[in-house]
Amino acid sequence: MEFFVTAVVAVILIGAIVKALAVSSHAFPIFGSKGERGEASVARRLEEMQNQGFRVFNDVLLRTERGTRQIDHVVVSTHGIFVIETKDYSGWIFGSENSEYWMQTFYKRKNQFRNPIKQNWAHVYALKEILSDYKQIAYFPIVVFTGSAVLQNIQSTVPVIYSRHLMDTIQVEERPNLSLEQVGHISARLEEAAIQGRGEKIAHVDMLRTQIHERKLKEQSLICPRCNGDLIVRHGRYGEFYGCSNYPKCRYTLSFRRRRILSLM
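The structure corresponding to this sequence follows.
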């Protein structure tokens, strides 16, 4: 009898746990990668803006003349369009607006990653292409860090912020730029242009991987990934670096440290 009661109690507890997990996963979806978790946390913060006259789009995939572009978050308002790039990182983050790569450090270990500001400007240009009929739109790129990252000496005119400051950063812009009718038309255009379907998104990820691989191969061979010019040794205020032979038309640069890292790959 005692065994039967214990079994019944166990079944009830398991059922309650399963039900609780089902509810929580519906309210807060479980994402596989750190990047997806970071985007989900920012999406939850942006949800409350939907009722304040803002239109929020998350994980937008657009097709442009240069291929597909995936934008983490787009917020359309009467003040303009806020274009948000999300990074879920830990460690200390160093970078400047004009550098090709930023640095993530963990004590003695250092990792480089693509400049998120430049990544986000590519997203702005994609939106401008899709919304070319609206010449007067003001665009506001923002880079948001989630996770436990600590921003150190970031040099940028573009806001690079922690996720907890996102709402204030958006709401500080008060100058009217678009009418409510225009906000509706722009939102409808984005919904129409956005690519749906898992197959398309997988193809986009594959394209990005190919582009990153080709970029690394060019840098390893001292070929400029922007214009295919030669990367030659130049001298600056902070020492030697590789610069494009087509300067000043092309201003691409590659640090000696980055070149050493690539040679080990």
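The chain is about 40% helix and 25% strand.
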